[in-house]
Amino acid sequence: MKLSFLFPLLFLVPFLASCADKKQVYIVYFGEHKGDKALHEIEEHHHSYLQSVKESEEDARSSLLYSYKHSINGFAAVLTPDEASKLEKLEEVVSVFESHPRKYETHTTRSWEFVGLEEEETDGDDRRHKHDVDDRFRVGRNFLNKAKHGDGIIVGLVDNGVWPESRSFSDKGMGPIPKSWKGICQTGVAFNSSHCNRKIIGARYYVKGYESYYGPFNATANRDFLSPRDPAGHGSHTASTAVGRRVNGVSALGGFAMGSASGGAPLARLAIYKACWIKPNAEKTDINACAEVDMLAAIDDAIADGVHVISISIGMTDPLVPFSKDGIAIGALHAMRRNIVVAASAGNYGPKPGTLSNTAPWIITVGASTLDRAFVGGLVLGNGYTLKTESITAIKIDKFAPLVYAANVVVPGIVALNNSAQCLPNSLRPELVNGKVVLCLRGAGSRIGKGIEVKRAGGVGMILGNTPAIGNDTVPDPHFVATVAVPPTVVEKILDYIKTDKNPIAFIKPGKTVYKNQPAPSMTGFSSRGPSMVDPNILKPDITAPGLNILAAWSGADSPSKMSIDKRVADYNFETGTSMSCPHVAGAIALLKAIHPKWSSAAIRSALMTTAWMTNDEKKPIQDTNGLPANPFAFGSGHFRPTKAADPGLVYDASYRDYLLYSCSVGFTGIDQTFICPTKIPPGYNLNYPSVSIPNLNKTVTVKRTVTNVGDGNSTSTYVFSAKAPLGVSVKAKPSVLTFNRIGEKKRFKIVVTAGKDKMLNATEKGQYQFGWFSWADGYHVVRSPIAVSLA
User: Fold this and answer.
1) DSSP β-ladder status, 572-575 and 550-553
2) Which of 268, 289, 298, 318 has the fewest CB atoms found within 10 Å of its own CB?
3) What average pLDDT does the structure give for the chain?
4) Subtilisin-like protease fibronectin type-III domain location, by residue (predicted)?
5) Does 579 participate in catalysis according to the annotation?
6) Residue 63 domain boundaries
7) Do the bridges between strand 700-709 and strand 650-651 make them parallel or antiparallel, or are there none, so unpaired?
8) How many CB atoms within 10 Å of residue 767?
């Protein structure tokens, strides 16, 4: 889930044991608490297990990092592989697994408006575009009003903290803290009780797991705060995207995206769970780490504190980790049992297939797509070649300047390092660069760092070129020199021009904000793709939301570029990644919880999925990064539409026991001692999910589903089935007509998927996934679900 450039998401860093007796951090998981022990008794019970494998009571007590006491029954401890193996053999233990620190790479003035939730005409530059005659926006305003802007809903953010002074977290005009809240405001360095208010109602931090990997926390080396305070922007960005207050006159550096910033549920309450920390690194880029044991402790506390929604922009790089050894999946299952909805990011490893993170069916997995705002600059070469390109650099070049290729202006010896064109620190010769535009290639080093090197050498501008390995995704950054980013094909044109012209020159036009940019939404190239490598019977991701160039609150302790050399300060900043799309969905969930407080977690997911866009604003299929139609392994059910999700017509509901039964199909058993897997375990694709995935279809598969009538005011309704079958198969429903006589009534049906004749697919298509959809419609509601099928 990571490209060579920085994208906001938290990832797993492999932590390898060097020898069999080396101590590591393990999670010992027992499943659900029985509810028959007090908190201190639970901890003593966990100690007894450690004493059974440790040489002394002192060793047992010192090895314990966390005792998970609220919903999750388990503990985290420092063990040898042999000790872990002994515990894993115990009958009452569900799983024992080594915990890994997850590395973190890591709204808004446009994205909520783009999905129809803007309240009123925005300020500044946004006034240059007028709303379409505003049925869409009237619906959005009505939806927000009905949801009371999320008031009464508590959203928990597991991330790297918050910058409480941001205007996005003001509590002005907010009512009393919900009586259901049971959390605390944990104080620490640069964070006291006054930093919690009626908006940020709680804050905690977790560092024991981090310290077990990287040693005692050192404020100077870490450039972090031993408290819930956000040192690097990511936590503040995601929190304000989900639930930030409305703030007028907001923009990024240079005045880009000027407008009114707001989270999706601006009156929802915020609970902060800091489980990610800056790891010492000279450049301070792409270096945050989140220990799994810390995150599991955060989720356990969030459940006990009384949150309604949990947003987790964190994920694994390893798509093969089973749910029984995935801390986020385990924590999310316990949250779901308490009807807490968990949204998590899909990852930034696209467009390669099978790269998804957070694939458990009780998690809403969110991919990243674009919105209709772009930041357009320009490049003009001396031969007349002109290109529009993404840029958020406001620095101007008044005239054409000489153009050079970085590889031709490096210090002696750099060529031998095979990175001569990458503008790494101290690589360029000032006497050959001064006053010129430099073509630099991406690869090693940061994008911002390359511009800093060009400026150090006296250059006035930079063309930042993608290599074929990186692909076509270009990302605007707040560079220190006038900059444009270009794809590989343009790099070739520029190199040809430099080689064939005796005096090559270039002019870089400063960027400006452009609205109604089409096609939108479209899929980003970085967003991780399905199929799920843990269980391909569940179609993932579930949904997509804006994740490209999102403007949101930032940390006052960090620069826009996140580099220590950058001394600029920004209250709001652009970030890109599925870390940014996830809190969009979390904000929408908060609004839906406010409107439908009795809906289950599964019902809310179903409502979001079955009402999502599968087309863009031009009514054409959502495009992928290659310009071709994207498929459900990229966007799931489509681009989220919160206003439609409030009245989906029908929902695919699922209970905790349904998920336990599903877990039997993937070997994740023993979670609840009151539940025993049946002798005949139903296939995973029969989980009552709002999508269908059938790998290796041979002949016919019958999928069972149940829908519940939740139609707004329509107690009596008749739904008719229709389908667009994937290539090479037929899709039919039995029955094909469903009639409901009351709200809450359930109806069962079967989807019969049959492989067609071999001639329908050529040799290269066999074994590959084909896609389609099916829907139920009553003349007003359209309840649509994607299908993915591969033929054996």
Assistant:
1) antiparallel
2) 318
3) 88
4) 686-789
5) yes
6) 10-101
7) antiparallel
8) 12
